[in-house]
């Protein structure tokens, strides 16, 4: 495994992290604690130390699985990132909660679910610029940092917004990391977000690095996703366009004999702004495959 410093946090994070939206039950599979433990054990064995979750991946369900694991392991071995701003109400349904008092409750609920006394990276989760510009919210979060409940703050940019304002203003609210959708099929962050992150010395977590699995190389243009899978909600024309683009990338860009998913993760990590990628996983085999991307020559360790 290779490691990089996450912005100005001083934390050395593995270039391959572990995304855990799937543990909340919205990706076509329900998990058990035994399955989650096995995947996290394998991740730790392979040098992965970064777990990314959220309050609304299930009703703190993903966090509860992670907490069940952390309660029986060395907490200091892991960098835990979670988020705030929403409450799970059902499959792909969320209630917006941005008042300072609501977020404080979410924070305490997350700490209980994670069975930990502190969160390493607490991230504003896909809110609007208006919701972001809330002095009472950030003042409350600063007090929680002083109290030791939060070590560092971050901003997870909404996939539906530009993110320029929040990235530019991150330092003003003491946020030190940006999470953004970035992959070979979605390069928009290269235009403004990633250059701003370099300018402001912000760490970058690239989420959806496999483009919701399209860049795994497993799906053909006629692929069908079952009920309960997030991808089943993607518009048919968009899904087909994505799959055709993937086929072209596989033919023209991925070196012969190289696993496409590993190539796609390493491709993200080539950008000088990107600190870590946080792909999801449904089994131990995917954890192993994802971690192997760190071994590719195109991935550099920048902790030195």
Briefly summarize what is shown.
The chain contains 10 helices and 12 strands. By secondary structure, it is an alpha/beta fold. Helix 1 (33-45) crosses helix 2 (61-70), helix 1 packs parallel to helix 10 (284-292) and helix 2 (61-70) packs across helix 3.
Q: Can you give the mean pLDDT?
A: 94
Distance between the termini: 14 Å
Could you estimate the helical fraction of the residues in percent? 25-40%
CATH class: Alpha Beta
According to CATH, the fold-level topology is TIM Barrel
Strand content: 15-25%
Walk across the major sheet and give the strand order. 3-4-5-8-9-10-11-12
Number of domains: 1
Helix count? 10
Structural features, described:
With 304 residues, the chain is an alpha/beta fold. The chain has a single domain, classed as TIM Barrel, CATH 3.20.20. Helix content is 34%, strand content 18%. It has 10 helices and 12 strands. Helix 1 (33-45) packs parallel to helix 10. It comes from Paenibacillus pseudetheri. InterPro entries: AKR_Detox_Biosynth, NAD(P)_OxRdtase_dom_sf, NADP_OxRdtase_dom. This is Aldo-keto reductase IolS.
């Amino acid at each position: 495994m290779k490691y990089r410093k996450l912005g100005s946090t001083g934390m050395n994070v593995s270039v391959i992290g572990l995304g855990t939206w799937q543990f909340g039950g919205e990706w076509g599979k329900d998990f058990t604690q035994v399955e989650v433990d096995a995947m996290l054990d394998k991740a730790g064995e392979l040098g992965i130390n970064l777990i990314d979750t959220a309050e609304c991946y299930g009703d703190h369900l993903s966090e509860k699985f992670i907490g069940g694991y952390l309660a029986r392991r060395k907490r200091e071995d892991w960098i835990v990132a979670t988020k705030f701003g929403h409450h799970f109400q059902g499959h792909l349904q969320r209630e917006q909660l941005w008042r300072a008092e609501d977020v404080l409750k979410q924070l305490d609920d997350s700490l209980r679910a994670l069975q930990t006394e502190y969160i390493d990276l607490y991230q504003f989760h896909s809110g609007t610029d208006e919701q972001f510009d809330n002095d009472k919210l950030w003042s409350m979060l600063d007090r929680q940092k002083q109290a030791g409940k939060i070590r560092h703050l971050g901003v997870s940019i909404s996939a539906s917004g530009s993110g320029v304002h929040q990235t530019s203003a991150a330092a003003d609210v003491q946020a030190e990391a940006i999470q953004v959708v970035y992959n070979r099929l979605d390069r928009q962050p290269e235009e403004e977000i990633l250059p701003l992150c370099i300018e402001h010395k912000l760490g970058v977590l690239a989420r959806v690095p496999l483009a919701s699995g399209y860049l795994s190389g497993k799906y053909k243009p006629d692929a069908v996703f079952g009920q309960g899978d997030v991808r089943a909600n993607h518009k048919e024309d968009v899904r087909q366009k994505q799959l055709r683009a993937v086929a072209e990338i596989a033919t023209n860009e991925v070196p012969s004999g190289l696993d496409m998913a590993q190539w796609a993760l390493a491709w993200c990590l080539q950008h000088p702004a990107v600190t870590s990628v946080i792909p999801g996983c449904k089994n131990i085999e995917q954890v192993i495959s994802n971690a192997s991307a760190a071994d590719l020559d195109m991935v550099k360790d920048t902790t030195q």
